[in-house]
């Protein structure tokens, strides 16, 4: 059985490309780019709450880093460095090696240096701290939405929750939808390029981790604004609608921008080859109010808005 130090050396030590001193000392040394602000975020993934014991370790390794990358994407930041705190049961090198492969696949994809962490024995859990950079004053935030702004979402919100519903036997998907939904669930693609392109364009942004309505609610609260949603092609009532409106784990970006930028954003979708859908607008209504309409403009009352850890882990059908 490898020791803690052998584990770190074998599985979590790789070359770095933009770090003065990485894994192996008491602390890492990094030199932020002059003129940039550091954007820092952390996320915890706990077995039984965020992933199941039989989850494929490679997909889990990818996702452990990807959900953190997504937070930086939502800030309009360029991800640069990460630290990984790992709690592992009796070390099983195969499992850890496969997890590390997925983790470094994601790190390589987004050019992130792993610069440190901590490793300890216990019930399996992972905590990543990620650092990125954005030009001073240009990071995207949740608190800038203005009345009249358009509300946009990237990609295909709802897919991850639908994939989970399939795995849990709450719905039955067939190809190609099945493959698309499972890929969204297991291999989320953080929208870093979109976040960078939205600097100076978006007035507020968030990544969809808890559910579209719940996360839009966060923008509305922090911006003290209201919204009216009318999502093109919203499915009829049922699990597809529920997953789209309230499913978590998508890691798409939800953002607001002045209506005068609508055509720029439509063009950006073409450049990035990523659907960007205008799903409503910010209104001058009471702060926090969210009116949701059907495709034909009829006001609807969604069953739920999203996922809350302190309500019902896993059974709610989405994880964040
Ligand atoms: P210390 O006891 O000084 O905190 P550790 O023995 O915990 O140091 O870790 C030794 C080195 O390995 C440190 O540089 C630490 O950042 C790094 N490290 C520990 N665990 C991990 C991990 N899971 N991933 C990456 N680096 C790690
Ligand atoms: Mg330590």
UniProtKB/TrEMBL annotation:
Residues annotated as binding substrate: 50, 249, 307
Binding site for Mg(2+) 3: 26, 71, 207
Amino-acid positions noted as binding Mg(2+) 2 in the UniProt annotation, renumbered to this chain: 43, 71
Binding site for Mg(2+) 4: 26, 41, 71
Known catalytic reactions: thiamine phosphate + ATP = thiamine diphosphate + ADP
Binding residues for ATP: 117-118, 142, 209
Record-listed Mg(2+) 1 binding positions: 42-43, 118
Chain positions recorded as Mg(2+) 5 binding sites: 210
EC number(s) given by UniProt: 2.7.4.16
Family matches, as Gene3D superfamilies: PurM-like C-terminal domain (3.90.650.10), PurM-like, N-terminal domain (3.30.1330.10)
Pfam families: AIRS (PF00586)
GO molecular function: ATP binding; magnesium ion binding; thiamine-phosphate kinase activity
GO BP annotation list: thiamine biosynthetic process; thiamine diphosphate biosynthetic process
PurM-like N-terminal domain boundaries: 24-132
Keyword terms, alphabetized: ATP-binding, Kinase, Magnesium, Metal-binding, Nucleotide-binding, Thiamine biosynthesis, Transferase
Pathway: Cofactor biosynthesis; thiamine diphosphate biosynthesis; thiamine diphosphate from thiamine phosphate: step 1/1
Protein family per UniProt: Belongs to the thiamine-monophosphate kinase family.
Any further remark recorded for this protein: Reaction mechanism of ThiL seems to utilize a direct, inline transfer of the gamma-phosphate of ATP to TMP rather than a phosphorylated enzyme intermediate.
NCBIfam families assigned to the protein according to its UniProt record, in alphabetical order: thiL
Function: Catalyzes the ATP-dependent phosphorylation of thiamine-monophosphate (TMP) to form thiamine-pyrophosphate (TPP), the active form of vitamin B1.
Protein name: Thiamine-monophosphate kinase
Organism of provenance: Sulfuritalea hydrogenivorans sk43H
The encoding gene: thiL
